[in-house]
TrEMBL record:
It comes from the Bacteria. It holds the Pfam family MOSC_N. The lineage of its organism: Bacteria, Bacillati, Actinomycetota, Actinomycetes, Propionibacteriales. Coiled coil: none annotated. InterPro entries: MoCF_Sase_C (IPR005302), MOCOS_middle (IPR005303), Pyrv_Knase-like_insert_dom_sf (IPR011037). PANTHER family: MITOCHONDRIAL AMIDOXIME REDUCING COMPONENT 1, MOLYBDOPTERIN COFACTOR SULFURASE MOSC. Residues 118-282 form the MOSC domain. This is MOSC N-terminal beta barrel domain-containing protein.
Amino acid sequence: MSATLRSIHRYPVKSCRGESLADAAVEPWGLAGDRRWMFVDPDGDALTAREVHGLLLVRPEETAYGVRLHAPGAEPLDVALPAGAERVTAHLWGSVLDVAVAGPDADDWSTRVLGRPARLVHLDDPAQRPTDPRFSDADDRVSLADGYPLLVTTEASLAALDDAVLERSQETHQPAGEPLGMTRFRPNLVVAGTSAWAEDDWRRVQVGDVVLRAVKGCARCVMTTVDPDTAERGREPIASLARIRRWDGATWFGVNLVPDLTGLPAGAPPPVVRVGDPVVVLEAAAPGGGPVRPA
């Protein structure tokens, strides 16, 4: 079976629930509308689901004028794109960003829902944040994703991981629970029709008409152990990934991508990926070396 794009996912607010899309425009810093909003504390430091698990229960919905926020036990809040008059400095993984403040209504809602002082901010200029230069080009940019514009995963690799979780549960005489599901890995693109871990070897891949550079494997953190439906923390998938996907002191699942949009005419609309698009590997490394990672 040839590889195809099975699903597309956008996360309007960092660390919150995602939206499944039939198609999406691909901008230099990621899918259009992906991770352009973020919650910060009073000092401007990013709040993520690594520490604030309840963020995973907040469901953003992109609208024509901004974003609508849903959360358990709270009335939905409509937030307009801020005009940008009020600005603060935000901090995210070493990046110092100039961002627009959503306003007092959003701050009040955020504080009530998260149970701690919080503000909602918007990255209206995504061109200001560079990617990690060790794995990408000097002019590559990323919005509020952790490090790179896009993350790709494959159904075959998730199936292999689920098998490993089941095997570990049998060895340790613990309940296996439900299959992990792709949601907790928060990919932008999910590909069907590959072998397990084939994405480790990709270096350039074409999805529909869009060419993407595969620049680095994705090292997985404690956030993947938080159930996205309940916000409760467990041991998987890190426990099983540590058995089958451990290199250099980290565990790996998925590959980070950077759009290669060179050659587009000036002023041209961004290219679009669509569910069902063929996925073609243009360049690949020798198999078996694991994902690209720090030397």
